[in-house]
Each structure stands twice: as C-alpha cells, then as structure tokens.
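Batch job 17 of 40 flagged for manual review because the log was empty.
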Amino acid sequence: MLGTVWSILWAGHYLAALVVIEHILRNRRDPRGMLAWILALLLLPIVSLILYLMIGYMPIERKVRRRRRRRRVIEPELLKATKAAVGPYDVMDMPELDPAQRSILRMSTRLSDSYVTHGNAVTIYHDAEALFLSMSLAIESAHSHIHMQYYIFSADETGRAVRDLLLRKAREGVEVRLLLDAVGCWRLPRSFVREMERGGIHVKFFLPWGLTRRRFHVNCRNHRKAIVIDGQVGFLGSQNIGDEYLGRRRKYGPWRDTHLRVRGPAVTQLQEVFVEDWHFAAGEDLASQPRYFPEPQLGGAQIVQIIPSGPDRRLNVMHQLLFAAVSDARHSITLITPYFVPDRPMLLALESAAYRGVKVRLMLPARSDHRIVLWAARSYYQELLESGVELYEYEEGMLHSKVVVVDRRWAMVGSANMDERSFRLNFELTSILYDSELAQELLADFDELRGRARRVTAEALQSWTYLQTLAAGASRLATPLL
C-alpha cells in the first residue's frame, strides 16, 4: 500500500514537472537559472515544485503586468505634479559634471524614466544611533504627513519606539502611512499592526501571501527603505527598523548601514515612488492631491537622482547601471555590499576593469545573516584575486551597506544588493550622487572600515579546509536561485 502511494506521488510529481519545464523553456531566462530549475525538478521530487511555486518565475509576470496597468492609470497626474514642482534638467545645464558623469546620467535617465535634480542637501549616516535620532527628530517636526516604507519592521524595542512616535503624530492630526513588505515583515504580530491601525496609522502590506490569499510566491518583494516627511525631507538607504540594525543583538554584533537624509527637489522623487507603491498596495490615489507635492525647498547645491527599479520597470535597470559604472570607470571602483552573487557579465566586468588597470576594491562582511550567500560570494574570490581585485572582509559586525563609488567623482547608495534578486526581482531604491565631495566622504568611510577588516589573499584561500571548499562549491551551485 505504501509503495503504491509513493508511486502515485512520484508519477504526479513528474507529470507536474513536465508542465513546469515546458513553462521554463517557453519563458526564456538566464540559462543558468533555467538549468538549475530543471535539474532541481528532476532530482528533488515534490520539494522542487513547492520551491518553484514560491520563488520561481511563473507567478511574476502576472503581478508585473498588473502593476504596470495601475501605474499607467496614475502616471499622467503623477508626472504633472512632480515635473511642475521640480522640472527635468538637461545635463548640458550642469557644467560641473564631467563626461563620465554625463554619460551615466543619460543612461540612468533613459533606463528609469527618472530625472536629475539640483539644489539638494545630502547628509550621509553610517552610525545607526545618529540616523535613528535624525529620523526621530524629523518625524517629530512633521505637520502634514509622514510616508514610510520598509522591507523589515520588527516589533522589538526599536520598532515599538517608532510605533509610539507615529501614534503620537497621528493623534496630533498628521497623516501617517506605513507600507511594509509582506514577506520581510512576516513575523510582525497582527496585534502590533492592529494597535497602529486603531491609533490612526494607515498600514498596508505589499503583495501579501498565504493560503487564504491564494498567493504562494515570495518573489517581487518591496526591498525599499524610505521616509518622506511633509514632502520636504526624505531618508533612504539600507537600514530597516529593528534592534539588530541598531547593533542591539549580540548574534551579529554592531550592524553597519549607509543611509541618507535628503532635503531638496530629490524628495519629490522619493514621494513619487511612495505614491506609486501605495497606490498599488492600498488602491488609494495620492498623486492628484497637491499637498503631497509642495514646492521643493532648495537645501544645498548637490545633484541627486533617485532611481526606482524592479520588475514593473525595465527588468535590468540596476544591472545595467552597475555594469555601465564598472565598464566606464577609468581610475577606481569601490564597492560595499553585504550580499555578492554576481552573474557572469558582472563578474567579467569587474575582472576586466582590474585587468585594464582600474583599482577595484570590494568589501563584504566576514559573517552574515545568510551564510549560504556569504559562501556563494567567497566562491568568486579566487578569480577576482587573480584579476587584481582587492578583497576585504569586515570583521567587527554585520556590514549591510550598499555603496558604489566610481573614480572618486560620483556614487550610488541605496537598498540594492549585488545579486540576482536586486537586479531582476526586487523593488529597490537607489540614489545616484553626482557630487565629488559626497563620493570622497564615502571613500573615507571605506578606508576607515578597511582598518577594521581583513584583506583576503590567495594564501588565505589555500588554507581553507575541505569542508570550507565544499561549502563554497555547493553555495556557488545555488547562485542562480539566490
């Protein structure tokens, strides 16, 4: 009897696997990912079907088309509001930009339909406590509205402090909207959310999933971390809301992020991104209401461009931008990322830059909250070292920053990792800073981190144990799925 049941299960699996394989072949993607899924379907019965349902490609296209349809509904009003407030800038109007900066600006504008803004004031935060204080003070000063979106919002001491502050502002009559990712916040207690809702905070979840909702996939996550206050002050970067991000959990030690405070016309772009995301998640159209798009106050003289990316836009906007940044670099490329799982073109671009004499430096954490991703990154060390790339592992805690600095002239800071999920599947938010002073400040932070990091050498790789070598190889095999 038991043997008959197993035979039926196996037969059912392989019949379903044939249907899925046919779908994979018709929806042509990266050959590595296609092959990995086909092998998994053949070698891992039942489990592979569940995984494909959760993280495979099948459900993604439907969600992307739905998002695009909704975006077209609000886009005319949205563009009218934002461009009236800021207006597009032509790169020829900015003599301070060098040819390389103009090149990347043209490309980023074409890829993302974004625009560059002048007259911003940007403050860079690496210290979590200082950032938390600045965010709290900005929220305290809100008079009209507070718009927040986060991938992770925890119900711990930090999360409760933010919740209480938002509840107090809601009681004062300030409109508070909080957009959370359903997968990133899957452990957030429902009682915690209800308390916020009863207190006047509008809480929505991005692409909620589960049996009752008949949504089983966990792709297309909103990985953005941003705040817009009164349409005048904005925050964006890599830091979520939770105790670990303030270094209050011993497991990972001090948590290191890079976050920005922005004042100026670029905040209108942040508002535009939130309004679009909120419309998709909540069905509420805020674009036609002028109070959310006030006349921007010029905060400084820095040039900033906000780049939203995700499967609702060009699938490879972040991939193409990073590839172009590496390929166009003439002197130096400095990268900080917690999760380094590049595809072959990006890996070749980094190696080619090093071979042609560009100083390429890459810093990763020595310990990670995702060990398989850490060992997948380490599987690339040998070929990167052979090409001349300098590799460092930060040892004093979890390094969660996502920073790129090119030629000491311009930089990218945001939520996107250097992996397939950020390139193609997640909704990310990145700022391009066309300012050499900000680039130099980020480089100074890299040099400071380097003093507390271990440089990876070929000799160190040769000392790996058998199990470490095996872990790197096995993790590398899983990279198309990470």
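Reviewer: the log was empty due to a logging misconfiguration, but the result itself is present. The first strand starts at residue 116 and ends at 125. Unflagging and moving on to job 18.
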